[in-house]
Amino acid sequence: MEALDITEAAAAEAIEALEEFHLIDRANGAENLGELCAYGPWWRTVHPHMAAAHMAGAESRLRRRLFELNVRRDSLTALASIYATRPPEETETVEVVDLLDDVVTLIEQASAECRDEMLACQPGGGRPTEELEQAVARDTALLNRGVRMRTLYQHSARRHGPTQAYVERIAPAGAQVRTMTDLFGRMIAFDRRIAFVPHPQRRGGAVVVRSPAAVAFLCEAFDRAWDHGAPFSEPERTPVAVDDLRQGILRLLSRGLKDEVIARRLGISLRTCRKHIADLFQELNADSRFQAGYLAATRELLRGTPAIPE
Fold first, then answer.
1. pLDDT tens digits, 44-65
2. 270 Cβ contact list (under 8 Å, min separation 6)
3. Whole-model pTM?
4. Among 45, 124, 166, 298, which is least packed by CB within 10 angstroms?
């Protein structure tokens, strides 16, 4: 090491690189070289032509492996076409997927095969930034193919910066986004043929629904909610969104739900929820949840709720 003026670590790294390219190998009989072997194994240089021959052998094995993989892929493709021709009663209509990676793969496949329409219902306020970044490329590709895209968020998503940025990027391409106070659940559907809903127990998992009747039911629920949604506008809080949010809080207050449950249902923070509740209590001059709900009903502040005679 001293003669080469390099450290032991640098020498080990160089040896590892040379061995990887088959430019050196262990000298035969190194174990019989006596005490010199105490300083480590003995190496000998290999002619580059010999090293290239080793690489050619590895390349040949790799090509053979790729050929085998292609044969298997072709066999699976042929099997898939046979699978698709099975009678309806034999076709799986519901598939439970536990792992998030598998769910993402299935959604990407359904997205790539989508030709007409994608529907998405995203409760819970703004989505994670990483998830939105991944969605931009996928959704843009869909829109560029002429696919109609409609997405529902809760009103609280209007104040979520990453969601605002996401909408600003996909809206010019033709995507439609609306918001509501409360949504019926998380769902994404492609061509009214396949739908994904959350796994009931495993976080990140999903249930893949292919039953025509079940998918039609989910898409009809989406259409009904869409008709009552407000178009996603600028980041500021629009009067429609604020009014709907307060209506939702009043309805849930009248049912006696706790602040935490109301915040989760409406996709807002607990702090924001409690601020709205305090403002409503002050405006209604109410001292309790029940009283706030009663006063709201008597004054016909709850849309769709008949007034209570005074």
1. 888 887 777 777 777 778 888 8
2. 259, 260, 263
3. 0.54
4. 45
